From TrEMBL:
This is Beta-lactamase-related domain-containing protein. Residues 21-111 form the Beta-lactamase-related domain.
Amino acid sequence: MQDFLLSDCRYQYEGKKSKHPAYHFRMTARDMARFGLLYQNKGKYGDLQIIPPEWITESTTSYSINNLDGDGYGYMWSIIPEESGLGNGFYHTGTGVHLLAVLPDTKLVLVHRVDTDKDFNISWNEIRQLMYMIGEARILD
């Protein structure tokens, strides 16, 4: 990651909410896109295998269904249903609805960032609709 600094990370523990601490970190849109490309390429960066392809497959496999929107859930990734028309895809969201979506079948990586320093938010429904509109607007070979 080109822009990432260790100072972009912070530890947070709230014992009343969970027995597990949280490790928050910040990523630029460029680093998010690179991370998405790494997943889209099954863990390869150029000729270098950074993440085992088996891990990419395992972590982006749906193990449960989110009853709110019907998407599946893998290891920290939401899994887009195949019947959605977007193909085999997955995404992760963060504070303020930062979004990293990977649509390998169409070779698309989508990144959406918001200025959370100024408490800017966008609704999940709006960003989800935008993700689907972009995915559906692609030109197929």
